[in-house]
Amino acid sequence: MQISESQEQSKLRRAPMDDGGMDTANAIDILTKQHREVEALFAELQGQEKVPSKTKQKVFEKLAEKIELHTKLEEKIFYPQAKPLDTDTVLEAFEEHDGVKALLKKLKATKPADESFDAKISVLKEMIQHHVEEEEGELFPTCEAELDPEAFDAMGMKMQEMMARSGSSAARTNGRGKGKTKANRKH
Ligand SMILES: [Fe+2]
Ligand SMILES: [Fe+2]
User: Fold this and answer.
1) What is the tens place of the pLDDT at every residue in 42-53?
2) CB-proximal residues (5 Å) to ion ligand 2
3) In whole angstroms, what is the distance from residue 97 CA to residue 90 CA?
4) Residue 182 in contact with residue 14, Cβ under 8 Å?
5) What are the helix (H) ranges across the chain?
């Protein structure tokens, strides 16, 4: 594939991003944005000052919901397309998701006041950090180089449908649209 062509495709793919409903967002944009949102929730949980247990519980519930939705989108929609391009990484990613889910389950059964809660959150964060680095550093670039822009848009549409069906607050990835779009950032 020629470099100029792939850059052009990349531009096309990334241009139509809108905060309001993400109607035309492509799959990589959706997943990457969710990664940043998960990171922001970890930062809330591990703030400099002591976070009250009640707040911790609320933020954790939001975090768990977001991670569960995100892993579902990847496992049902993105990984099947990515697997033929990088089978080893995708198989590892499935296993890492399982590890994350198991720890989430433990955390759900742990009260924020419990002495092990913060330790579990730290380990969860490390697991996810490593996983996200592989996705954004290897898997996403591989897919961007190999798949057509249309494939990303089609996956993006399916993800939006799945998010709408889930009806969860985790599906609201961006609050109430502040107008910061990928398209804006291009200029
Ligand atoms: Fe993942
Ligand atoms: Fe991910």
Assistant:
1) 999 998 788 899
2) 135
3) 10
4) yes
5) 3-14, 27-45, 53-73, 79-82, 87-108, 117-134, 140-146, 149-166, 182-185
How far separated are the first and last CA of the chain, in Å rounded? 26
CATH superfamily, domain 26-167, is nmb1532 protein domain like (1.20.120.520)
Per-residue pLDDT tens over the stretch 88-118: 999 999 999 999 999 999 999 999 999 999 9
The overall longest dimension of the chain from CA atoms, in Å, is: 56
Distance of alpha carbon 164 from alpha carbon 175, whole angstroms: 15
Q: Which residues surround ligand 1, an ion (CB under 5 A)?
A: 74
Q: How confident is the model at residue 175 (pLDDT cuts 50, 70, 90)?
A: very low
Residue 69's closest CA among 108, 103, 37?
A: 37
Instruction: Say if pTM beats, i.e. exceeds, 0.85.
Output: no
Q: Tell me how far the alpha carbon of residue 153 lies from the centroid of ligand 1, in angstroms.
A: 19
What is the number of the ligand closest to the CA of 136? 2
Q: Which ligand is closest to the CA of 90, given by its number?
A: 1
The answer to whether 169 and 62 are in contact (CB under 8 A) is: yes
